[in-house]
Amino acid sequence: MRSGTRRPGVLALPATIAAARALTASLAAALRDRPGSRPLVVGGDCSLLLGVVPALLTVLGPAGLWFADGHPDYLDGATSDTGETADMELAVLTGEGAPPLVSLAGTVPMVDPSAVVLLGHRTTGLDPASAAEVGRLPATLHRIAAPELLADPAATGRTARDLIDDGAGTAGCWLHIDLDVLDPSALPAVTYPQSGGPAWEQLAEALAPLAASPRLLGLSVADFRPDLDPSGDYAERVVELLRGIVSVTPATR
């Protein structure tokens, strides 16, 4: 559980909006300058998606989202213990949250819940607040929880790929990886580690069908703590994981 004592609201809201708009402008320019490319966006936390998705909408149109995360990130200013937008960006993207954030792209929701696959979130052994967060998820938002991923990573990836197919009315799908989707035994260098997740190999196997999909528009990765990785060994594993995605040649439609 992410915990703390604070007054309700969204922390650093003006700065968050400014950062999102700056990223939107930069990514939109890159998408226009290099059509057909699949960008990689690296950021501190998952709130980077508040800049990514508006850029996709601006240049490509509505997009789906493959969202690999140990948490649903479906809180708001009233329910989050921290007030961090990293607690709430999936809710914001699908139309729930502070109006200045929800309206960043001028289109609400920025992503239809039915065009989202939440992959690898924990559903067992949760405290009441975390269980309530899972319960806030829209019924139409697709979910493949960590136990399913662990049981058959490859099948999980194929299912996630096929849940948002060519008939979904989207230009393609963006892949986002919050590294806390991994089990802490594999990667302890994250902000909010949570047990019950996959090992490196299992995550790579689950993501392989998404990496090979011709519908992949690009990817983002967040929540690596280099201060908890003095040797750099975990950083090398992150690079290896990303290399395995970006080096894949998309399959033919």
From TrEMBL:
Organism domain of life: Bacteria
Keyword Hydrolase carried by entry: yes
Keyword tags: Hydrolase, Manganese, Metal-binding
Gene3D superfamilies listed in its UniProt record: Ureohydrolase domain
GO terms, molecular function: arginase activity; manganese ion binding
PROSITE patterns per UniProt: ARGINASE_2 (PS51409)
InterPro entries for the chain: Ureohydrolase, Ureohydrolase_dom_sf
Gene Ontology CC: one annotated term: cytoplasm
Keyword GTP-binding: no
Family affiliation: Belongs to the arginase family.
Protein name as it appears in the record: Arginase
